[in-house]
Give the backbone structure.
Amino acid sequence: MTVEAVQLHRWIYQEFASLAEMDFFDGNRVELIDGEIFHTAPQSSRHATILSLVAEKLRTIYAANYVVRTQMPLVLDELSAPDPDIAVVPGTLLDYLNAHPRHALLVVEIADSSLRHDRERKRIRYATAEIPEYWIVNLPESCLEVYRKPVHGDYRLSIVFDRDESVDFVSHPELAIPVSELIPQPNG
């Protein structure tokens, strides 16, 4: 008797999208990364508020010719379609009427319980897709991790900005936002 090897099934984006259209995930938030389907944790109040603050700030900077999307798919390739907390994509809203964007200028993840996943798995996926700038709003440490210069599947430059510093942008180096405006101190 022979024993067959057990293999992992890697989902492709078309299969994943079909399952979502059939409401297979029953309203649960999920995303496709490297052919694997991951459930995303429910948002804390702090996570939701900071996501809104960061998106609002980014909309003032990327007011024309860009769309700041929150928690919507970004199709990186056949095996990965994460739902980043924020993605700044070129164009207008109507450019994405029939298909999700495949590239972004800036991706932001708000990380608390997902910090390791965002630092490791997602960072590599965004770098491989050549997203020029990736931010992790690190809630446990109240800092902003910035990754830039994607090369061969990883970022060559990583910078940690504390709350008392300001962060600039690859696409708009003349502009900067105080990190304290992105990560306010928790009340009490």
